[in-house]
Amino acid sequence: MKDKIISKANDMFLKLGFKSVTMDDIACEMCISKKTIYKYFSNKEALIEEGTEAIKNQIQNAINDIVAKNYNAIRENFEIRKTFKNMFQSVDQSPAFQLKKHYPEIYAKITEDEFIECRKLFTQNVIKGMAEGLYRSAIDVEAVVQFFYTLMFSINENTLMEKEANILELKALEYHTRAIATAKGIEELEKNLNTNNN
């Protein structure tokens, strides 16, 4: 039952907003009593915290699946972006923006965890791209990773509408790739832009 509550709550939070959905709304939608929800979660914040943790794990599993397919570094980034877009395509408002605004403590905890995972992922991608000859060999990996991380997370936490965030993320990915790509990498970038630019 707990997992069902988290799943339903996440659907509602993402579609309608973390702030606007009440425990009553979730109970009503599931045809259960509010008391049943409080059996598993002491308050709405506890439900949001566990819900966002579940979303984070879902995203991490999806990313791991993509990395396991061993695409080249540039395509890998585009595949990851496409997965994010598909996961949140029915969402109007950016989840990160909403959390930061209404539940800053939960947002801070999530971003602290994500910071470590994303730095690791971005670092692996840059090193992989350098080995493949898609990224220039003489780049400061740590600085590049920091720039890209800062850019992507700034978009997510400061852009209200998810659709707008998606457009900006694609532009940021292009910007990042052009900054570090070799001539071979630019060719691969153009190919991915042509197939993903929608």
Structural class: mainly alpha
From the N-terminal CA to the C-terminal CA, the straight-line distance is 38 Å
Q: Strand content of the residues, in percent? A: under 5%
Tally of individual domains: 1
Q: Which ranges are low-confidence, i.e. pLDDT below 50, for 5 or more consecutive residues?
A: none
Please give the count of helices: 10
CATH class: Mainly Alpha
> What does the radius of gyration come to?
19 Å
Q: Determine the CATH superfamily.
A: Tetracycline Repressor, domain 2
Mean pLDDT: 90
Q: What pattern of helices and strands is seen along the backbone? A: HHHHHHHHHH
Kindly identify the CATH topology: Tetracycline Repressor, domain 2
Based on CA inertia axes, which overall geometry fits? elongated
How many runs of DSSP E, i.e. beta strands?
A: 0
Helix share, percent: over 70%
Topology:
Blueprint lengths: L1 H15 L6 H8 L3 H7 L3 H25 L4 H15 L7 H8 L1 H28 L9 H18 L3 H19 L2 H14 L2
Helix pairs in contact: 1-4, 4-5, 5-7, 5-9, 5-10, 6-7, 7-8, 8-9
InterPro entries: Homeodomain-like_sf (IPR009057), HTH-type_Tx_Regulator (IPR050624), HTH_TetR (IPR001647)
Keywords: DNA-binding
Protein name: TetR/AcrR family transcriptional regulator
Tell me about this structure.
It is a single chain. By secondary structure, this protein is mostly helical. It has a single domain (48-196), classed as Tetracycline Repressor, domain 2, CATH 1.10.357.10. The protein has helices at residues 2-16, 23-30, 34-40, 44-68, 73-87, 95-102, 104-131, 141-158, 162-180, 183-196. It starts with a helix and ends with a helix. The protein contains 10 helices and no strands. The mean pLDDT is 90.
